[in-house]
């Protein structure tokens, strides 16, 4: 019980540090926005509000790993830079969410109207509803663009040596390329422009989510702690497997989970025609002719969506994806077990990763 309480206390401390840094980042942006009129200032007030309240998985992982890689008492300057980069990773995450909501046409995030939904409602009237939606989506795109720029600025201003800064900036560029490429393929799959098969879907999933959600924070922690490139590579491999398992689980929750728990629009993936591993398996089953007519129907009712969910479960898609998750977790554990004299994984680092994997058990959101 003592260790559990200590872990909760440490998470609360790290969360507070990241939250305060995020508040500072958005406060600076807000001061800049004041010169551009009340509408633009209102956009940043909404952005600051919606950027807060998340689980902070990525920045917390980075800080936990940074502390595990460093000494028990890292210098104040190094600690400050780590917190700043951790917050920058959350800013990057929010920028991707803004763009993703525009692409998917989503109006709900974390169980409430997202930035687009709230901005559109604030300017809505019956005669200009289409204009309000267009304005709100445009605001999300533009805010996302500025947040991408802010992320780069935070990385570029990190007070670290030239070689480490170059590694950080190369990592950021790689991450944005990988995530953008994954999103591009995701849209192509959903629109039927790219042929859907399991290998393509899994590759897209890894690029779109695993790279920036797990590989980025792990690799950034290694760089900031002055770790070797070989250790960075090993943690990148572990993060790729863990990230893919996480996203596969997220897809399961979106289709088979409780919408009240995960906070997304219930069955939005089915309405939008998301080409997940669930659908890849269903396409190969005898049940697909019964599933296909309702899949990707934007007017899909809640009752028909529930029936579609039941068909996907009965055809074995849920169990199949659960098996894929176990495969990725198995590969993750194997990557930690590999003995490499040139870059052995420290015990504290392994403990952070094992604890993260354990949190998957019983995940509801």
From TrEMBL:
Gene3D superfamilies, sorted: Farnesyl Diphosphate Synthase
GO molecular function, one term: metal ion binding
Alphabetically ordered keywords of this record: Magnesium, Metal-binding, Transferase
Cofactor requirement: Mg(2+)
Highest taxon of the lineage: Bacteria
A GO BP entry: isoprenoid biosynthetic process
InterPro entries according to UniProt: Isoprenoid_synthase_dom_sf, Polyprenyl_synt, Polyprenyl_synt_CS
SUPFAM superfamilies: Terpenoid synthases
Entry-linked PANTHER family: GERANYLGERANYL PYROPHOSPHATE SYNTHASE, SHORT CHAIN ISOPRENYL DIPHOSPHATE SYNTHASE
Annotated family: Belongs to the FPP/GGPP synthase family.
Protein name as it appears in the record: Polyprenyl synthetase family protein
Species of the source: Leucobacter denitrificans
